[in-house]
Records
---
Amino acid sequence: MNVCKCAGIVVLISLLTLAGKLRADDINETRIEQLRAAEVELDMLKQSLGPSSPQTLEKQAQVEMWRQRILSDVGPRRDRARRNLDVVNQQLHEAQEELRRVTGRTDVSLDSLNAVIESLDKEREELLLESAVADARWEAIEDAIGSEIQRAQDATAKDTASHEIQMDVDALQERLKVMQEATKSGLNTPADVLAAQASLAEAQTKLAERRSTVTSEAGGSTLAELNHDLVDARIATAERNAKMEFIKQRLITLNNALRIADEKDFGGLLRQREAAEIEAEKAAHDWQVIQDEISSIPTSQPAR
């Protein structure tokens, strides 16, 4: 069979095979198949015409040209994909660092920031409800305390023993005043004044004890409990107000962070990075596949 005819049949068979595998989105695969077919043709030319024939040398030069063309196409694509990914990663890193600086958070993903805002907003609503209930309770406690104080005062006002002790106290106070004036004139000694002061102090103590007893019998223990509750309510209100202020400031900070993220198109950068990662991975994969494919094709050596 004529050598050129054999070579043509081989090329035709290769092209028919190539047509079945051809994909519009993978030109490099087509070139690999072309390179394989050319290598087969080159081997046949060597066997039929010899390695030094003009046709063989021409085909060999063509094969080497195709080999270099394939490598020159896939290498820059891989490098461009890597550079593009680096640029997007740098832009995203700068945006993330600014959000971390503003928020003081490590996780500054949009989902995380929105989740924190939603949680704080929910807690603020709960605190507002607690505050409304606490205000009503505080008012009720103050009313109850006022009622208990009035009740104790009424009970004390009606207590005969307290009246009698109060009269003694009043009398002792007047007597002490008279004695102090008389002492200035030398009519009494300082010892007499001290004795009068002691009598007055004893009477005042009696009056305080009596009033305490009357108040206790009139519900004084309840008043003590109410005062304790009022102190607790004041502490709880202070704590709740502190939480409300913190949440308010935190929400301002986080919403500012979302505004910054929107200005920097944070979501767009994330999508760009995802696309760039896919492209870089595919370009690197294609480069490796083509390298392996080319390595598997023997390089023809010119005759010596």
---
Amino acid sequence: MNQADALKNEREVIESEIKNNDSFSGMKSKFLKALIQDGVTVNESALATESIGEIYGPLQKQVRDQKTRQESLLKEIQESHSEFMRSRGSTSGPDSLRDSFLTSLSAAHDTYFEILANLQEGTKFYNDLTTLLVNLQNKVSDFCFARKAEREEMVKDLQQNIVSAPTPAPPQAPSYHSGAVSTAPPVAPQQPIPPFAANPYQQYYYPPPPLPVGYNPFAAPAPCESFYCLYEIDF
């Protein structure tokens, strides 16, 4: 496999030389020289093939050598792989212990890289979250500072308004008060007691209503003066 890696590196170098080859810059001068020597009968195909062979001949040789070495190396890799697979077919002895160890090592390798990927992703997430929280904290601090300054300015304006407000005048006594105002509570005027009151503390007296007249069934009926009464009497 190390030989395969070395072969791959040599092939990349050959590919770079083919792409970056600038030997064709002198082709124009060769065509002009041939045109001067031979006139209008210039064999462009032969001249181009000769120039291409001169430029890419060494590279073509390297490519052929690479191909031969690749085929030989591929055959060796296949033989080594077949031998390795035959050795893995044993189910007892040292080979079995080796297979078990290699299986555990492969599982540990996969687990390690999985944990490493999760750790990198978590670290990136918390780094981004920290940046967002710091920005939010700065915004909250600026907002609180602005509100505090606004509160202090409003308190200052309120105090200035209270200080600059005029002092209210004390209340004046009514004009009909000529002397000093008496602090004694007012005395209610006494009402005269009527002579007909049974109780001197009673202010009003209501006489009892007249007794109702009883019904007398033996009394003479009242004269009937209606039209129907007169009609019945005449009949």
